[in-house]
Amino acid sequence: SQKIEQNSEALNIQEGKTATLTCNYTNYSPAYLQWYRQDPGRGPVFLLLIRENEKEKRKERLKVTFDTTLKQSLFHITASQPADSATYLCALEGSSNTGKLIFGQGTTLQVKP
Amino acid sequence: DSGVTQTPKHLITATGQRVTLRCSPRSGDLSVYWYQQSLDQGLQFLIQYYNGEERAKGNILERFSAQQFPDLHSELNLSSLELGDSALYFCASSVATSGTEQYFGPGTRLTVT
After folding, report:
1. CA angle B38, B40, B43 (to 5 degrees)
2. Interface residues of chain A, partner chain B, Cβ below 8 Å
3. What is the separation of C-alpha B16 from the centre of its chain, rounded to a whole number of angstroms?
4. In this predicted model, what pLDDT tens digit does every residue of A50-69 receive, in sequence order?
5. Chain B closest CA to A59's CA: distance in Å?
6. Mind listing the pLDDT tens digit for each residue in A23-34?
7. For the sheet containing A56-59, what is the strand order?
8. SS3 (DSSP) at B83
């Protein structure tokens, strides 16, 4: 069955450093991969979308890579700030022309000042 | 503020009861999605509607049903409630059927006692 794995352990980094989060998947060929941020008790907030034929996408301090051979996406936050502390969710969407997203369990990032 | 509204914010009810959750999508969005988030299962896709028609279905229980009305708002009906149905229920919307970011509402926290 389809499986998405994100680091279950929290990632703790120092302010100003680059945070790198990993999303691995199996038994799936997504057409799109998305990253969302979720704060406790709130709805996920869209960050970036990357298509299967794209290798890398950037938006301000955020960068996502997508390797369909390795079945892996890396999500980077450069010059991290305490306000970046949250849970980050990876989500896959297939090519069935529906918006059905399959989410990973998320990785919690803690940026210490 | 994503522009997606959900009511009620909190709902406490007893086992065996039936509840209705309501969602209004962002202005101009035709797709509405429902997701369930529990601590052990993470964020799970339930169902998608596009312009009033069911578009995709996830592992939605038979006790659950949904619809999208002509004004594009959507309702999720949960019946014969069980303790395990306690969760956060999110509605999301997007402008297209697929390949685009989804905007999530603040969620409805359902507690079944």
Report:
1. 45
2. 31-32, 34, 36, 41-46, 49, 51, 89, 93, 96-106
3. 19
4. 999 999 999 999 999 999 99
5. 14
6. 999 998 899 999
7. A3-6, A19-26, A72-77, A62-67, A56-59
8. helix
